[in-house]
Write a structure and sequence with these properties.
This protein is of the alpha/beta class. The protein has helices spanning 24-39, 83-98, 125-131, 136-141, 150-156, 168-171, 187-191, 230-247, 281-295, 312-323, 338-344, 370-387; strands at residues 43-46, 52-56, 64-70, 107-112, 174-182, 195-201, 204-212, 216-217, 250-259, 265-266, 269-277, 298-305, 308-309, 330-333, 349-354. The strands form 3 sheets. Strands 1, 2, 3, 4, 5, 6, 13, 14 and 15 form a 9-stranded mixed sheet that branches. Strands 9-11-7-12 form a 4-stranded antiparallel sheet, covered by helices on one side. The longest helix is centred in the middle third of the chain and has 18 residues, at 230-247. The two termini are 27 Å apart. The protein binds glyoxylic acid and manganese (II) ion (2 copies).
Length: 389
């Protein structure tokens, strides 16, 4: 089932996927989702924030059990982060039908909009808007690298920006949410198990640092006369690594923009994005405060996600049902997910992870063996059957 998606948004140079929200690739992926829903006779709905829902049964009468993930990607990412959860959701539904299960509750397959925040900088945009964790005013004014706002981009895609925002009616259809995801680490490799269950998501955030200087000629400007923003930027990168080790967290500068960006000019502006995460919020906050105070830059928090501890009862139930004879291992993660946003909004939520042999993710190297993907589908079907009883 991943095969028909293999060419969509693939960059042959990197071998990775570029699937920004509301791009041509995203629209093609949405079309694929609609086709899969139609083939199964599911009732397809797109909510006010662009999230897609394919229902088996009517959730307006009784909240359903929802599974799914996202189809957008980090730039030059892998084939599994997001799509594995959506494809496995449809496959698990097929398996339930093959088993002739008559679910006691509606079952929904969800695809959330812009989980990665690759285009507008705020991750889990669809679920944050849905739950009211992000205001429509802030979301619609966010700009992409071309200077287009979310409002512009949604209008071009034929959507109505005026409708964006907290959607209690849609949220009320989600009784329970279970997201299956490729593991983004090697926890399951160490456990020797194909499927695991999430315990928690680390608190995490993104900060934008603008270093201002003066653009000038690279050959004729004496060193003493320069105001070069690349130098404090370089200090930030090294300081982030040093502080991360000291605070026992992780910190990454993975995106920069140099303006005007000439090899033969001192830059006038360097913008850098810091991503920081860790098991404990105070340590992450301390690192960011320390780096912000020393940077000599304008610093702005673009997103913050507090720690998510998934509910113990549902988590343990999943571990029992998905584990077969021995309960599935329970692991924390440093990656953000829509399941975390829904959990914070009070929706009982849980996650299944599928083993990733190298642990690499957000890279074309990301992988899961087919046998493990199948084990993930069986585990998800078992969980859905159990939750729908
Ligand atoms: C999403 O994958 C994130 O954690 O950045
Ligand atoms: Mn991701
Ligand atoms: Mn993901």
């Amino acid at each position: 089932m991943l095969e028909p998606l293999a060419h969509i948004g693939r960059d042959p140079r990197s071998g990775g996927y570029v699937r920004d929200a509301w791009s041509a690739a995203d629209m093609e992926l949405r079309g694929w989702f609609a086709g899969e829903a139609a083939r199964r006779g599911l009732d397809l709905r797109e909510d006010r924030n662009g999230n897609l829902w394919a229902w088996w049964g009517d959730p307006s009468r009784r909240p359903g059990v929802v599974t799914g993930s996202h189809l957008d990607s980090v730039r030059h990412g892998g084939a599994y982060d997001g799509p594995l959860g959506v494809v496995s959701a449809f496959a698990a539904l097929d398996l339930l039908r093959e088993r002739q299960v008559t679910p006691g509750r509606p079952i929904g397959v969800a695809c959330f909009t812009d989980e990665e925040g690759a285009r507008f900088g705020v991750p889990c945009m669809g679920s944050r808007l849905l739950t009211g964790a992000l205001t429509p005013e802030r979301a619609l004014a966010l700009t992409d690298d071309d200077g287009d706002t979310l409002a512009d981009v949604m209008t071009r895609a034929g959507r109505k920006p005026a409708d964006v925002g907290h959607d209690a009616e849609t949220l009320a259809t989600v009784g329970t949410f279970v997201e299956l995801h490729v593991e983004q680490g090697r926890g399951l490799v160490h456990e020797g198990r194909p499927v695991g269950v999430a315990s928690a998501i680390w608190p995490h955030g993104r900060w934008r640092f603008d270093f201002h200087g003066r653009a000038d000629h690279a050959g004729t400007t004496r060193l003493a006369d320069r105001d070069d923003p690349m130098l404090p930027f370089a200090r930030l990168v090294l300081a982030a690594r040093e502080a991360a080790e000291r605070h026992d967290v992780v910190a990454t500068v993975g995106k920069t923009r140099v303006s005007p960006g000439n090899a033969n000019a001192v830059p006038g502006l360097v913008t850098a994005w810091l991503d920081a995460r860790g098991p404990a919020e105070p340590a992450v906050r301390a690192l960011v405060e320390e780096l912000s105070a020393a940077a000599g830059a304008d610093v702005r928090e673009e997103s913050w996600t507090p720690e998510v501890a998934f509910g113990a009862a549902l988590r343990d139930r999943l571990a029992r049902v998905a584990g077969g004879d021995t309960p599935a291992p329970i692991l924390p993660t440093g990656a953000g997910h829509d399941a975390g946003i829904l959990a914070t909004a009070g929706v009982p939520s849980a996650m299944l992870f599928v083993r990733n042999p190298t642990g690499v993710s957000h890279s074309p190297e990301e992988h899961a063996d087919q046998a493990d993907c199948h084990a993930g589908v069986v585990a998800l079907a078992d969980v859905l059957e159990d939750l729908c009883r």
